[in-house]
Amino acid sequence: MNRYALLGKGIGYSRSPEIWDTIWAKEGVTDGSFELVDCDDPDRFLQELQEKGSWKGVMVTTPYKEWMYERVDIASDIAKSVGAVNAVKRVGQQLFGYNTDVVGFAKSLQHLDLDTTRKALILGSGGASKAVAFALKGLGIDPIMVSRHPAEGSGMIAYESLTPNYIEEEVQLIVNATPLGGPKMPHEVPPIPYHAVGKGHILYDLSYDRHFAGFLNAAPEGCIKMNGERMLYLQAEAAWHIFRE
User: How many angstroms separate the CA atoms of 235 and 245, rounded?
Assistant: First the structure.
């Protein structure tokens, strides 16, 4: 049996095994198993991944995407540009790192009428945020990362800069790439002026758990609201195409 997994921390809620079963059923794959590797010591798992030939591929989620980028033997061009890896393919003793979050996010936006003259806000600054920023640049949209404590010269802005007028006049898309409002932190939401969000805005929460949609629920009705369910499937599908080659 060929083994695949999702590596992360606090991921007991993940729907990844279900998603992979769906992909495999669609393609008639019967020799794969998918498991959750929820751990505080990813180095131990990395050693097992390198040593045991039964492992074929691993998906990576918070908080290990940037950590994994530093440890793969060879990273794809997109992974290098993003600085984060969410898919690892084992070939012999080598680990090849990829970032399929980029294509997954970009494809999930295809049905939307995006205005390239308006900015996109990305709430958060981790590996997923970087993938979203890279994807948006490829679509001709100017991404602005928002952080609680933006480093000087990083190009990020603070939440305090998000005035109602700025949201109304400059922004179309707001992406929540933080755990706020999701299953890990359900009672908090990113501190933005939700009352300034209106009909012309798109709110996108990378969290895909419909039971924990604090970010989307905080916004008034009238705007377009999306969660990360479609992206989850698309990035997994892209990873499977890499793993099976």
Answer: 16
Look up 65 and say whether it is catalytic: yes
Same domain (yes/no): 51, 84: yes
Query: Cα(80)–Cα(94) distance, rounded to whole angstroms?
Result: 17
Read off the amino acid at residue 84.
Answer: A
Q: Is the dihedral of CA 219, 133, 161, 118 positive or negative?
A: negative
- CATH code assigned at 22: 3.40.50.10860
Q: Is 237 a member of any domain?
A: no
Same domain membership, residue 142 and residue 74:
no
The token pair at 3 is 């083994």
pLDDT digits (tens, 9 = 90+) for 110-163: 999 999 999 999 999 989 999 999 999 999 999 999 999 888 888 899 999 999
pTM of the entire predicted model: 0.93
Domain with 191, as residue range(s), is 103-231
Catalytic residue among 9, 26, 65, 184: 65
> Do 77 and 15 belong together in one domain?
yes
Confidence of residue 245 (pLDDT cuts 50, 70, 90): confident
In a domain, 243, yes or no: no
Q: Does 211 have pLDDT greater than 90?
A: no
